[in-house]
Amino acid sequence: MLKDQFGRIHDYLRISLTDRCNYKCLYCLPQPEHLDDSIKGDCNSHGSDQMSTSEIISLAKIFICEGVKKIRITGGEPLVRKDASMIIRELGMTGTKLVLTTNGSRIHHFMDVFKEAGINSINVSLDTLNRDLFHKLTQRDDFIQVKNNIQLLLDHNFHVKINMVVMNGYNENELADFVEWTKEEPVHVRFIEFMPFPGNKWQPDRVIHAGEMLEIIARTHSEIIKLEDGVHDTTKKFQIKNYNGTFSIITTMSEPFCGGCNRLRLTSDGKMRNCLFSKTETDLLSALRSGEDVSLLIRSCLAGKHFQLGGNSGVSWGLEETSSHRRSMMGIGG
Fold first, then answer.
1. 132 near 171, Cβ under 8 Å?
2. Count of C-beta atoms within a 10 Å radius of residue 132
3. CB 6: neighbour CB atoms within 10 A?
4. pLDDT digit string (tens) for 158-176?
5. Dihedral angle at the C-alpha atoms of 110, 115, 121, 124, nearest 10 degrees?
6. Residue 135 burial (CB < 10 Å; 0-12/13-18/19+)?
7. 86-112 burial code (b ≥16 CB/10 A, e <16)
8. Which pTM does this prediction carry?
9. SS3 string of 203-228?
């Protein structure tokens, strides 16, 4: 069992398959070397600093032996990795609950793989229902493909969550449209407060806080029902009366939910982070390759976890860049 100094049990691991992506979303702002216009289909794993398929599986199994019961596959965009299918299938054979987060552009190529691996819940990042704005935010004209792929998942009875990063001046006027989407379709929309990371041009006036979001939604949807939240939930959940789907808000900026955190992260180059906002990370990949006790490193890393927001504080806490805190959102794996 993986327990931190505050008594929180950690049984949920997020594994980033790659720090590459075929999109250039504003709030990720990948480092220049990761902005590759050629990445529209598959991309190879990029060098010996990245985890191989077997290394991902080996580290995942160590975490599972330590008590991890749920694994989320992330990126970058995980489905651009050339061996993504093999990794997903092998993780599916570990017996842990397997889920995935994707930008939705390549879902149609992986439906059989998802089913074979036992994945039945997928998060799709989609920040607008407007094709032109989608193009502006991602630098790709893929809106129709992504929307069709979301419908494909729904048609095959997947549990579908839509992740929308709400940014003042960009897409806050679409909140009601996303909520209306939940009327007929069983989609679960998650509105995310814009979070600061090194290099993503975060500014306080771009943040729409949870209370403001609810006020905007209430202008067109009066019968908002508050749903029960679980102890490990990162969201505040709601539903419009008689609607099939739900919506929720991830309140990192206005109301951090760190008290019930059960999540650990493994970057594509094999670094363990005990918090999304951690200023330090532990190199598990080098330890695995040299035959060291990886389990000991995992427990040591977790022992250093702060209670809230990686120990950050102050107005610009998420923007501070140090030698060990310089990864973009895409580099961490979300």
1. no
2. 10
3. 12
4. 999 999 999 998 999 999 9
5. 10
6. middle
7. ebbebbbebebbbbbbbbbbbbeebee
8. 0.91
9. CHHHECCHHHHHHHHHCCCCCEEECC
Dihedral angle at the C-alpha atoms of 191, 197, 258, 162, nearest 10 degrees?
20
Cα separations (Å) of 268 from 69, 82, 184, 318, 327? Answer: 20, 14, 38, 21, 12
Tokens for 209?
A: 């806080």
CATH topology for 12-332 is TIM Barrel (3.20.20)
The answer to whether the Cα torsion of 258, 67, 158, 23 is positive or negative is: positive
The first and second tokens of residue 334, run together, are: 């979300």
Could you tell me how far CA 307 lies from the centroid of its own chain? Answer: 20
Q: Give helix then strand counts, H and E, for the chain.
A: 10, 12
| Contact assessment for residue 328 and residue 9, using Cβ atoms and an 8 Å cutoff | no
23 phi/psi in degrees, rounded to 5 = -120, 165
> Phi, psi at residue 179, to the nearest 5°?
-65, -40
Structure tokens at 15: 């594994």
Tokens of 85: 């299918």
Q: Going by C-beta distance under 8 Å and a sequence separation of 6 or more, which residues neighbour residue 219?
A: 176
Strand positions, DSSP E, 55-208: 70-74, 97-102, 121-125, 159-166, 188-193
Query: Per-domain residue ranges for the chain?
Result: 12-332
Contact 47, 74 (CB under 8 A): no
Give whole-number Cα distances, 70 to 11, 59, 100, 160, in Å: 6, 14, 11, 17
3-state secondary structure at position 15: strand
- Amino acid identity for residue 281 in this structure: E
- Give tens-digit pLDDT for 255-308: 877 899 999 999 999 999 999 888 889 999 999 999 999 999 999 999 999 998
Distance CA 192, CA 75 (A): 18
